[in-house]
Design a protein that fits this description.
The chain has 377 residues and is of the alpha/beta class. It contains twelve helices and twelve strands. The strands form three sheets. The chain has an eight-stranded mixed β-sheet. Strands 1-10 form a two-stranded antiparallel ribbon. β6, α8 and β7 form a beta-alpha-beta unit. The longest helix has 31 residues. The relative contact order is 0.19.
């Protein structure tokens, strides 16, 4: 939500699709034949819990330490697949850990405190708004992003492409969107253009476009980090027709930590998938968004387990997520449930504090808007 957001309203339709489903099943419910564009985030949108761009940066670290053996190394990977600890090569392992610590320690601690912990601790999150302004997530992510992008910029493009493909294939079991799904979408909506919009680097997006069969992509570089509102600005440059009033767009993202919440100001239908911070059914009066959807999407491995009759087919990373029923509400039902909350949000929107304290209004309004999702469960 931007610092200058005007008053708010509820959307025309809100759907929480409830029980886990496949990406294709989700599209069968929401995709229309006349859709012109499908905008997809990458990373945790196409792969459950995997930030592919970050993993590529770690892959380069491993390659520089271990050489060619890094990509096919069978040693166990730690810390969510980031660290490759090959105890059979102690000298290279020590160099790998030392170089990694020097490069990532400060940026990692910074992001741990102001990103991950702040998202869970209200007092720390409030302090983040005070320190970084109305969109602290984008500001906080910038430091580790620049560490990764600066390092990646030192490597040969062909090497990065090979490493990116290795990362992609290593995590194929975590895929929730595959090439055959996008082929199916094209058969259902002939002429649709599928665009990947991600904060990951070019090499990762090049591989993603090849693997998924997308039509194009926007990505980050040292000169420009493609995250938050910068994604929208970049899409306006590369695909301006996306924002024409008569063009139908479906936009899908995991919006982890809320970095893509600004999408609700630009697209008529937005969908959050496998998201810890889903879209709220409350948007600005000027927003183009009419529908908000939430879905739990199954990975390739989970679908295989379910098809084999495994009752415990869900990934262990989902164990803390309670099951939820399908919920669909129209504008009248949303107004009835959220009317008092909406009045409180708009009361804050009409306040004009001194500029140094404006973050307090933005923070309070954001907390109330996010609370709307809790009130619908």
């Amino acid at each position: 939500m931007s610092e200058q957001s005007p008053e708010m309203r509820v959307v025309d339709r809100f759907v929480d699709h409830g029980a886990p489903l496949s990406f294709r099943d989700l599209c069968a419910r929401v995709l229309q034949e006349e859709h012109d564009y499908l905008i997809l985030d990458l990373d945790k949108t196409t792969h459950l819990g995997r930030n592919l761009g970050e993993l590529l940066a770690w892959e380069l670290c491993a390659y520089e330490a271990y050489g060619e053996s890094a990509t096919g190394n069978s040693a166990r990977r730690w810390f969510g697949g980031r660290l490759l600890l090959d105890w059979s090569q102690p000298a290279k392992l020590v160099r790998y850990l030392g170089t990694g610590a020097r490069r990532w320690a400060w940026a990692g601690i910074y992001y741990l405190v102001w990103g991950k912990l702040a998202s869970r601790i209200p007092a720390l999150r409030r302090l983040a708004y005070s320190r970084f302004g109305p969109e602290p997530t984008t500001a906080v992510q910038r430091r580790p992003q620049m560490v990764a992008l600066t390092h990646l910029a030192t490597a040969d493009e062909a090497l990065l492409h090979d490493l990116a493909r290795s990362v992609w294939r290593r995590h194929v079991s975590d895929q929730v969107i595959a090439r055959e799904d996008l082929d199916w979408i094209r058969s259902r909506s002939p002429g649709i253009e599928i665009i990947l919009s991600s904060a990951s680097p070019k090499a990762m997006l090049d591989v993603a476009v090849e693997e998924l069969g997308a039509d194009g992509a926007t990505y980050s570089s040292v000169e420009r980090v493609n995250s938050g509102r910068a994604k929208i600005a970049r899409l306006r440059e590369t695909h301006p027709r996306v924002f024409d009033p008569d063009v139908k767009v479906l936009a899908i993202t995991d919006t982890s930590y809320g970095e893509d919440h600004c999408w609700t100001e630009h697209f008529a239908c937005v969908i959050d998938v496998n998201s810890p911070t889903p879209f709220a059914p409350i948007v600005t009066l000027a927003s183009r968004t009419r529908e908000v959807h939430s879905a739990i999407l199954l990975t390739r491995e989970e679908r295989h387990r379910r098809n084999d009759g495994d009752v415990g087919y869900l990934d262990a990373r989902r164990q803390d997520d309670p099951p939820r029923p399908r919920l669909e509400l129209d504008r009248d039902a949303l107004s009835a449930r959220l009317g008092a909350l909406l009045d409180a949000i708009n009361g804050l929107s009409r306040r004009v504090p001194n500029p140094p304290r404006r973050w307090e209004i933005v923070y309070a309004r954001t907390m109330l808007t996010e609370a709307s999702r809790i009130m619908l469960t």
